[in-house]
Amino acid sequence: MRNRALGGFKWKRQVPVGPFIVDFICAELGLVVEVDGGQHSADASRDERRTAVLAAQGLTVVRFWNYEVLEDLDAVCATIVAECQRLVLAREAGEEGPATLSGTRSDCAGGEG
Fold first, then answer.
1. Partner of 85 at 20 to 30 A CA spacing, among 1, 49, 92, 96?
2. Are 69 and 80 in contact (CB under 8 A)?
């Protein structure tokens, strides 16, 4: 995600957003990428609430499990780039608001729900 290498967009890591610190954010697109460890599987409702708060601020959230990033980084990056492209097209079409992949990890990256 360094030097605009992912999708050509600027990414920041560990950024405060409201009451949370998000793992990665592309402010230009309003896209948040969260990388979750196993502790998140124990309380999915907490992640859903967090995603809802972020979505209420106009952000789109994509979640991945740690193991997905470690085992198939190419698929994770492809999913993030695809979401970036979708958001650009939505913006060009005049659509507003987040299309949040809430509370789930990306199926495209081999995630589980």
1. 49
2. no
Does residue 101 or residue 60 have the better pLDDT?
A: 60
For residue 78, what are the contacts with CB-CB under 8 A and spacing of at least 6? 108, 109
Q: How far is residue 2's CA from residue 99's CA, in Å, rounded to a whole number?
A: 25
What are the angstrom distances between the C-alpha of 76 and each of 5, 23, 42, 58, 85? 14, 14, 23, 23, 14
What does the radius of gyration of the chain's CA atoms come to, in whole angstroms?
13
Query: What DSSP assignment string belongs to 30-87?
Result: TEEEEEE-GGGGG-HHHHHHHHHHHHHTT-EEEEEEHHHHHH-HHHHHHHHHHHHHHH
